[in-house]
Amino acid sequence: MLGKLMRYEWKSTYKIPSAVNLVLALATLLGCLILGMPAASDKDTIFRLFTSVVFYSLSLSAFSMVTYIYVYIRFYKNLFSAEGYLMHTLPVTPLQLFHSKLLVGYFWLALHTVLELAALIALGWASGLFHQVNTRTEWKALLQSTLGASPWEFLPPFFGTMLTGCLTSLLIGYVSILLGQLMEKYKLGASVGFFIAIYLVSQVATSLSVFLPSTMTALSGSPGAYGDFTLYYYRNLLYWSIIAQLILGILLYIACLLLVRRRVNLD
Predict the structure, then answer these.
(1) Long-range interactions of 45-54: CB distance < 8 A, separation 24+
(2) Are 81 and 72 in contact (CB under 8 A)?
(3) pLDDT (0 to 100) of residue 151
(4) Long-range pairs for 48-51: beta carbons < 8 A, 24 or more residues apart
(5) Is the dihedral of CA 218, 223, 226, 231 positive or negative?
(6) Spatial separation of the C-alpha atoms in residues 22 and 184, rounded to whole Å
(7) For 76-114, b where at least 16 C-beta lie within 10 A, e where not — what string?
(8) pTM of the model
């Protein structure tokens, strides 16, 4: 039954995320064309690069925000608005309903994150930034000197950090909505309030759990020079970030399982 719910969820949600990803691809293509045009002067190059960076940064933030908000709204409307009367009469358990939303929602968020990373790489390539490094050896040396890791050591934890971040952000939204349903009045406003509170607390907690161990590990492993400290610091930062986000994700997931079992009082 979970598979049928996921297929229904997929058919009901693919239009908006697909449209957002298409606009992202078009914006990336436009940015690459702008950066790839021959420059008339150094001043023109700087202005064009600055404009493209500002436009693209705002676009990425907007695309990401739209995707997250859409997934949150879909979860709320489908389970706790008028649509919920129909969904809760289906011969399925609340856990099956929740997991169908979770899996499909996470797919769209993870896909959008991967596309954003690919878009940034394409933009960097079009700007000529990557052309300054010509060989694989130079690439390896650049990453090693900057982040203290080879490409194969850096990329897996970097992608892991992004993907675990998507999961925790999704679960924060779901937990906030579920907590909001416990209120007798102003459930939607309460959900927004819970989201802000949980997000701020989680950011402080994960930041402390990431930066303190990374700093201590760097201090214990570094010979003492600033450059060596930086290398040790960034080498461990991503791994600690993955661990912290996984722990937070597990706690949020357990909270969702407990809350979703409660009796739903639809307005």
Answers:
(1) 49/127, 52/123, 52/127
(2) no
(3) 60
(4) 49/127
(5) negative
(6) 40
(7) bebbbeeebeebeeeeeebebbbbbbbebbbbbbbebbe
(8) 0.82
Q: Above 60 in pLDDT, residue 134? A: no
Distances (CA, A) of 134 to 123, 137, 230: 17, 8, 25
**Tokens 């930041």 belong to residue:** 207
Structure tokens at 12: 């009901």
Q: DSSP 3-state assignment of 131?
A: helix
Check if the beta carbon of residue 218 is closer than 8 Å to that of residue 236.
yes
Helical spans, DSSP H, in the chain: 2-13, 15-36, 42-80, 83-87, 94-126, 136-147, 151-180, 187-221, 226-260
Nearest Cα neighbor of 199 from 171, 230, 157 is 171
- Residue 83 DSSP SS3: helix
What's the N-to-C CA distance of the chain in angstroms? 27
Distance CA 209, CA 110 (A): 24
pLDDT in tens, 43-102: 566 666 667 667 777 777 888 899 999 999 999 988 887 777 777 777 888 888 899 999
Cα 79 from Cα 98, distance rounded (Å): 9
* Spatial distance between the Cα atoms of 195 and 100, rounded to a whole number of angstroms: 21
